[in-house]
Queue: 4 jobs
Job 1
Amino acid sequence: MKDETTGQEDAVQDAEACAEALESLDRISLDDVAFDDSSVDVQDEPEIEAQPDDQDTGDVEPAEDEADHEDTESEADDQPGSDTSEETILLDNLPAEDSLTRELPGLGSAPAVDETIAMGDIPLPSVPSAREAEVRHRKMSPKRRNLMVAGVVAVALVAGGAGYAAWNGYRQEQAAVVAANAHTMMSVQIGVHAAGLDCSTGSKIPVQVSGQDSDGSSVSETLYVDEHGRGIKLLPGDYTFSIAASPIAADGTIYTVPTTKAQVTVKNDGQDLRAQATFKLKVPSADTVTDDQIDAAAKYAEEGGASSAAAAKILQQAAITRRDAAANAVSASEAQSARDADARHKATDLYQLDIPVEWYGKVATWQNGSTLCIYLGDDANTPIVTLVAVRDGETFTPDAGDTVLGTVSLGNGYTVYASGPVYPYVIPQTINGRTQNPVSTYPMDTAIELVELTTGNRYTYSQIKNDLVGKDGKADAATKLETDYLAQILMPSVKAQD
């Protein structure tokens, strides 16, 4: 009996120590927490009314009885009741031989946990009914309920703190990614069009880049792209692109550098900027390329556009050779043109003229005083046009079968008359049997050439024969064709002699 009393006193002391610790937690954490006990039925309040805290020392003695009462209630709660249908009993339907409890010698029918399962005298749990849960809630002191709620709140705060920490960590991770990208070089592609350029054999295109990166640092540098516009790497930022100089193709081609500029924003790796930055490099006439253009292209080729300085020198020499060859060809052509012009230039004692370029090499001339005849090839008997200077006021009469095709006033008292056969009319007539021997008079090749020379190849022989003039003869239409053409290519060159 003494041992039992001592155990009960120890239990009371432990309970008081726990109560003091919980009361301390209540003062710290629940000052601002309010709880609503309005759900407690008024008719049950006498059963759950708490004892006043200011009881004297004499009131403490019934603590043992109260403890015994609570133990009795606890045992009663663990036993199945007969006054409610909501009560649930575990293992109610098991047969006796399968029960987890058995009688122990000397202890009657007290429940015991099967030693094959339990590690100690742990009673089997039972699920309280709704009525039992309500009764327990009513018997629970407000302080105990507050402490339980405080525990729930503390758990929620801990869980919320963990969630916030996870979200904050995610945000910091994303910020770190953004910061890392801001300091990562991004590859971008621009658009370039340079006919015949292959950067694997020629030099790359130098692109001048200026602007400001994401760190706020100013950027001014030259980067190089291939014929597809690839090769630029930059930190994120805002930049201006322009072409610094021409690349040099393997054959020495130098390109015209466009003056356009493009404003771009670099955001991510692999960005396609062709819609915002596209440059067209045209190929000029090789003879017009200057030494300055070649030197600039060679400079950038040596600084990074070519695989090596030696390769840049080879490309530079190719550009010089190509330019010089083109310039020499142009010079030769100009010299030939001058010789041809001199050969085409004809003069009499009163006027001068130039044989049309279209006729040059196909006609020859003879002259006598102020009369100049232009005839077909070496056949002096097939004149195309004859020019005669006549004093103003005098009458001019062309030869038989010829028609006046144009006139020019020299301004020195003379007028030049141009006359000759109307071949767009004559040729179809002879070919269609209007002469005794049309083929021998005008062989087909000769007939076609005469029509071409007198109409400037504006119409084919078939068109002249079948559509414009016809075999029945339309002299006025044929004459107009020839006079219009001579008025364009020959008569403007006729001028008074110096």
Job 2
Amino acid sequence: MVSRAYTVAFHGVDARLVEVQCAVSAGLPSFSIVGLPDKAVSEARDRVRAALSSMTIALPSKRIIINLSPADLPKEGSHFDLPIALSLLAAIDVLPRDVVQTFVALGELSLDGTLTPVLGALPAAMTAAEHHKGLLCPAACGAEAAWVGNTQVIAAGCLRDVVHHCSGQTPLAAATPGEAPSCASQKDLQEVKGQERGKRALEIAAAGRHHLMFVGTPGSGKSMLAARLPTILPPLSPREALSTSMIHSLAGLIDEGGISRHRPFREPHHTASMVAIIGGGRHAKPGEVSLAHNGVLFMDELPEFPRAVLETLRQPLESGEVTVARANAHVKYPCKFMLVGAANPCKCGHLNDPARSCSRAPKCGEDYMGRISGPLMDRFDMRVDIPPVAYTDLDLHDGGETSATVAARVALAVEMQACRFQAFPEMTQNADADGTLLEEIATPDSEGRALLLHAAARFHLSARGYHRVLRVARTIADLDNSDGIRKPHVAEALSFRLPHGTVG
């Protein structure tokens, strides 16, 4: 008679239900695993045998076959150890078969039976809830998986605890959701001396999730401004925290503390490969754009990134998702992030500094910034020139508003947008608005419209650029607590889009 247990196989951020079938029949003693397992799954038989031996459970001298169904779905990872052990224990009547089938199980077994944490507990819990089953997982994964509230999560420390729970000897208590401890950031926007225009751009970008580009001389504070962006961002909503954490769970970025409500802030080095940024590799893993989902992707020294890497950002910026296609995988990952770029104006960095002349100006700047293609640059909602900081500004004791003050204004603007897009679940902030909806919420008054049309004709704004100006203007109006978009809102939005000094 065949016994059954259940686990999952990961495909992108989705976890597909896998039935683990075990048959013990007469024949030469053997232990085989079929159903397209990889090397780690095939090695599970040795780990399971050793773990059962540590519990003084002897395997029968018969032919044991484990089948992972569906057989055409690739099975990868060490989390198959626990469900294989459960199906085998049910087949030899150590555990009740009907109880084992009520759980989705995942976990790696040590040789002494200890359950080692594995990746993907959160997506596995989602799948278990969809199929009306509980989840059995290692103790270290319980706080993470328990965030899925409509399924029972049992987190065990070892295989012996699982056996005692399933047999009813010592039932385990359900795991409770865990939240990563919030460590207060030591950085504050008040520490930035001067750069009021850069601070204003950060506030607008944070309120509407607009892509932002800083250009300035070395040491002017571009990286310092970007590093303080997380201090003014609103916390993740429960829905956002769940979708973001599912990606982080697959990447192994969730520790025993549980899920974090802080928005991710990723800053890859400019030597990062295309696979590291976009995702992929042999098993089509998520890249930095997906790890920054619902957060910020900061790319310092943007022109230094390989041209091919920069060009692959264009489609994810527009669609909010990235498709990773490989010979053995074709998966989609969400990547709705805010892109913040920083660059020097030229190779030497002092093209616009009157105190230091650039010997190759203006060709030096044209060649250097030309590494960023026009279509990619067009996707930045705001472009800000960061001038060198004057020594008089550095000597000031008060750097201006604190991060808490700015964050309060950003939170109010985000709350207005949440009410505005309540009927559109796929939209959360002004950067998501498009088409007819954008016309409804971001049509300026007559004076603002006249200014926008004049600027669009004078500076040859693309259709994308025109709509991005409207989105930024809508966010500026939200920060101003204004229902309509007026001429000053359009003028400020244009000032972040057009060359400096052209909007009057």
Job 3
Amino acid sequence: MTRLTHATLDQLPATIESPRGRAMPSIGIVHFGPGAFHRAHQAAYIDALLDHDPRWGIAAVSMRSKRTVAALAEQDGLYTLAIRDAQSTNRVIGAHRRFLGPDDAAETHALLADPAVRLVTSTVTEKGYCLAADGTLVLSHADIVHDLAGTTTPRSLVGWLVAGLAARRNAGIAPFVPMPCDNLASNGAKLHAALVAFTRVGDTDLADWIAGEVSVPSTMVDSITPASDVALYDDVAQAIGLEDLAAVQRESFAQWVIEDIGTPLGPDLASVGATITTDVASYEKAKLRILNGAHSTLAYVGLLRGAASVADAMNDVALARFVDAMIRDDIIPMLPSTPGLDLDAYRAAVLQRFRNPVIVHRLDQIAQDGSQKLPYRLGDTLVANRRAGRMPAGVVIALGAWVAFLTQRARDNIPIFDPAGDRLASAARDGTPAEVVARLIDAGLGFPPELRDDAAARSAIADAAERISRGNWSGVNL
């Protein structure tokens, strides 16, 4: 079958929205981490913007592997976004202009120094920012150590951003706006602090300049985006009549909330549906704790109960009821009241989205990187409840399920997909649940540091893990 490219756009069915006939955009955005979520989410907003403002084409930079950027390059940056919902649609995205991998450092440096580039976004997952559990930069991280030693090819996002900002300062060019789009609470503030901390090690003048002149907006992004697979590629080929090996899929719902930093970002993202606000924190807390917290809970509990996808887990009546109660009783009471944000309506909408049978969001994918995700998704809710004098039963069970999940994987010699996978397996391979919980807390893995001094919460989590490991679901009220 003929491959999707600019030369074959005219072969698309007339019903498929695409950039055919649109002027080729110039590059105004550099994006690190062009995985499925970026291409299904931010790039879709940018693609809509390019219909009337061609300055904001994207240069996609992959720091680890050429695979994604090579697939994009083979299709001239074009790919299909399949919206999977009751009424499924397909749209060809044409927002990407350059495709850079680990061997293209010189081109990446040149783009970061280009005054036409105003915005540098990133989706490198939580672990890609090299941050400790408290959100500070880990100066001993291998990638940070490498970049601080001096290199023309940084390994870390922080190293790349500092290199680009240094080049612009040296040339007298205004800084670009770095904008993280990963699920980290206060991600803009944390990235800004990391840039300053990195730079202060060797160049205090540059550190002061970044601290005073570089604005890093916090963001909240939301859209369920399952991994692409052969079934998706086959469905897309049938729909558009062309082969597309870079296709991505997501639900119809998409949300991009961006902090108002008082100066223009460059692209007018509000004009294509992004929310610009001075209170990103309330939106991100609701998303991280309600949607992402529930997602992780469904992943660990669902996998232990034999489910494979989010929709499968929601078909487990007891599990669906448990997650609903956890959101209602443990999570929402600890969230701030925000004008325009109806938390109960958001809860109902999230659970309805989880039930979408067309979206096959694998639980084993969601379960990855738990040591990085859980402090924000569940740990913050646990801490908030404990400070309020409450023991959040649902969150305790969810965290106990993670411990039981680790224990099962470690003792069955099944790989744990996590940056700390080996350490997690070592901690969970033997001993009682209480001992496993203590090891994880001592190692700073997955749990908030406040648990060190909270014997009651530690005991409750260990008890839940023990009951779940024995298959005693009624003993944890599930």
Job 4
Amino acid sequence: MRAYRRPLAREVERLDISTLSWFAMFRGLVPVDWLIDAMGTTKTAGGSLMRELSLTSLQRRGIRSILRRTPQPVLRRILKEPVHQARRTLADAAVSTAHRLAVTRDLDLLPEIIAARGQRRVRGSRDLEHLVRDLPAIERWHDPRGRAAQRVMQEEIQALREMGHYNREIRLLPEGTAQVADWDLWKDEAFRMQALGLLKDRRRELMAVRDRERYEREEARRRERIAKQAQRHQWALQTAALLDGREAAPGLRLVVARDAETLSRWGAMLSNCIGGYASELELDVFAAVCEADGRVRLNLQITQSHGVEQILGKYNRDAVHELGEAAQQVVDGLVAMEVGFHPDALGADGLRLPQRTH
């Protein structure tokens, strides 16, 4: 023993601290726990422990299960890797097998998978990790008695939530309507069914109140829309009566459209889209500036809120391009009849528009 003890100690001192090659000298024929302990206690060149090599109990269990099923030739290749590489790869593989949830990997198939793949093709810990992750998932069945206890606990938790909801709801009811429940009273089946029925009736009443309030809001909005449309309609009739047939400028007069056919005819004459506004008839005022022979020169859209929003000629040309100086006379004539203009009215470029008063 003394003849080789000191040489052996010198060999240990010269051992490369970044590898597991010391155990590789034994061809992997060492307890698996020795390998796991070596991964967690390897020292750096300065003598301090590598903090990143600390393994959790979950990782230790997973690595132990993997290494016990790994053939010796593959294990020897892993032992020759740097310790940080082997540790990190095996820890990642262990996390996918020793999970706390109900699904894990069937590690009993690992030797068969390695044999089918060929041991020579498993070159190190990285290939081993890939094989472990590709193992089929299995469900970890629990003790039926444990499942029954868990089901009872879940039912009691649900019952406690229902009791708390019941006690909160009855505070909103008139005093004396319902009895406050404690746990012993809530476990009474008759009382619980009566309480749940009360909550159901309470929800039905609240839903009926919300439905009624929603209907009243919608009805109020509908009546408001009808009232606004009636007001617009009345304004449109009065404005149309004021403008129809009036002189817009020397040699030009205003004609107000009364039906969709007139709008369509004006659109065809001026090659514009005024015919598409038929749905707004008698809510807005649509007028044309016509010559004495009935030739249409401009189309106008006048709204209650903004006044003249469009004043366009053929092919949607600006009024100045269509009538020249007469366009300003049309604007002045409309202003004299107390018709306002939108500051960004289409076709009004080059015209002096009145300032809007608020």
